[in-house]
Amino acid sequence: MDLDKKYHFLLRKLHSLTGIVPIGVFLIEHLLTNSMAFQGPEEFNRDVRFLHGLPYLFFLELFGIFLPIAFHAAYGVKIALTAEPNASVYPYLANWRYTLQRVTGYVALVFIVIHLFKFRFAHVIGWGPPFIHEGNDYFEITRKGLMEWRPFGLVVPAGWTLAFYVLGLSASVFHFCNGIWSFCVSWGITIGERAQRRVGLAATALGLFLMVWGMLSLTAFATAKPGVSRAVAHGVAPGQAPSSTGTGP
Predict the structure, then answer these.
(1) Distance between CA atoms of 222 and 158, rounded to whole angstroms?
(2) How far apart are CA 114 and CA 117, in angstroms?
(3) DSSP states of 129-180 as a string?
(4) Does the predicted TM-score (pTM) go above 0.85?
(5) Architecture in CATH for domain 3-233
(6) What is the arithmetic mean of pLDDT over 55-79?
């Protein structure tokens, strides 16, 4: 029996909900933490160490990040494959948003998978050392992951990596913020046209704010000078030296 046919309403609601909580909440937290890089390596390293020091981190990541993302992505692909975009025939704003929501979903999915392999699971596929390790200089490892990325020994130009991250950031932010609008509509939170317009404006403002956060972190890593941060150099967080291959959070 096709589970989608039997539990179509429930799966649609869960798909919509997971896009906001916990995935959307994690996106905001992730961009906030990364934006600390603009305040300096010490601030960034301190925040990352705090997160990695949370109790039951494995279960928080598994049930709060990885499984929700896997479900949202898998069911989202199923929805996208059965979608019938008509923006080229009826170029209304709603139709373009419908189409872009699905396009940015694909882009965001590819971006997230590469981001996870490049950062969180770099040691699994041979792209770098374990990121979660006591004493790591997370700022320097992240900087190298963006500016000196060498997957399997291949040298990727820094400009290409940064362009990929700008594209992935833009797709992820649009997909999330446009999803807020559709979530409010599908859950009956915004019924009238005026309420929907207000939520749309609020979601747009949030999207611009998140883009600024993301660009701040990319700017910080792109303009930082190579070297171990003072927090590590002064012995605040002694441990292994950053790898030359480099990965990030």
Answers:
(1) 9
(2) 5
(3) S-SS-TT--HHHHHHHHHHS--GGGPPPPHHHHHHHHHHHHHHHHHHHHHHH
(4) yes
(5) Up-down Bundle (1.20)
(6) 96
